[in-house]
Amino acid sequence: MAQITPSQFGATEAGSPAEGITLIALTGQLDAHTAPEFERFLEERVRNEKKAKLILDFSNLEYISSAGLGVLMGLIEEVRSQSGDMKLIKVPEKIYHVLDLLGFPIVFEVLPQLEDALSAFGKK
Amino acid sequence: MRINTISLPADTRILAELRSFISRTAQNIGIDPETLHSLELAADEIATNVIEHVAPEMPCDIFCRCSIDSENHTVICEISWQSPEPFRPESLPETEDIRQRLESRQPGGLGIFLIHALVDEIEYDYQEGRSVIRLMKKIE
């Protein structure tokens, strides 16, 4: 295992583009190795910091598997119960293909740009 | 027929290496990026299933064998692991089932649904004490 480089993933808060809204930037590869880190990150924001209106920027996310999508599924009801939502923006085509195969756009709003997500939250 | 193989311990740390192996194999024959991504993701989903559901009970290695069948314009990715009995795939959820699971926020079954949606053909086999899943994807 010494020579093997595991998947690299990052989730960072990229500011608050409008009052009460948190922008989160995702980078790297979100698979079963990195999904627990993503889950902890989101749980911290939603449960401890009570941030419920989240915009997830996928523009630098290179890869996602069902493990990563399961994290989003696991928290969407919680944020909505706090009058919030998770909106996905700038989703690369190959990742959108995976979301679409599974019907995620039925549950999650997938929008082109930050401004679209802000409008969807009623901020513009 | 060109064949490449890799053997990796069943641990989530190897998922990036497994995908990279498939990518390296595919690069040499100029597979389009969409086909490559489908194979990487399908193989990742199978390996993840083995790591999460098989390895905790019985540590094992995941063996991946990729071959190109030029005559039939097909890439074949075979994933296998030591197993005392044949792997019995859970019944494949229909598209409508997946929609219902999404709407009721039940993530179970997403992986198996994805695997079948991403490749053209899938075979389940059992050879010499190993469960085998064979993914086949047509190439241009």
Mind sketching the topology for me?
The complex is a heterodimer of chains A (124) and B (140).
Chain A: E1 9-13, E2 21-30, H1 35-48, E3 53-64, H2 66-81, E4 85-89, H3 93-101, H4 104-107, E5 109-111, H5 114-120
Parallel strand pairs in A: 2-3, 3-4, 4-5
Antiparallel strand pairs in A: 1-2
Helix pairs in contact in A: 1-2
Chain B: E1 2-9, H1 15-27, H2 33-53, E2 61-69, E3 74-82, H3 95-103, H4 110-118, E4 121-127, E5 130-138
Antiparallel strand pairs in B: 1-2, 2-3, 3-5, 4-5
Helix pairs in contact in B: 1-2, 2-4
Please, could you describe this protein's structure?
The complex is a heterodimer of chains A (124) and B (140). Chain A is an alpha/beta fold and 124 residues long. Chain A is built from 5 helices and 5 strands. Chain A has one domain: 2-Layer Sandwich (Transcription Regulator spoIIAA). Chain A is globular. The N and C termini of chain A lie far apart (50 Å). Chain B has one domain: Heat Shock Protein 90, CATH 3.30.565.10. In chain B, 37% of the residues lie in helices and 30% in strands. Chain B is globular and about 40 Å long. The relative contact order of chain B is 0.19.
Which key terms come to mind for this protein?
heterodimer, A: 124 residues, alpha/beta, Transcription Regulator spoIIAA, five-stranded mixed β-sheet, 5 helices, 40% helix, globular, B: 140 residues, alpha+beta, Heat Shock Protein 90, five-stranded antiparallel β-sheet, 4 helices, 5 strands, 37% helix
Low-pLDDT runs of 5+ residues of chain B are: none
| CATH architecture designation of chain B | 2-Layer Sandwich
Number of domain modules of chain A: 1
Count of domains of chain B: 1
Provide the β-strand percentage band of chain A. Answer: 25-35%
Strand arrangement in the largest pleated sheet of chain A: 1-2-3-4-5
Fraction of helical residues of chain B: 25-40%
Widest sheet: strand ordering of chain B: 1-2-3-5-4
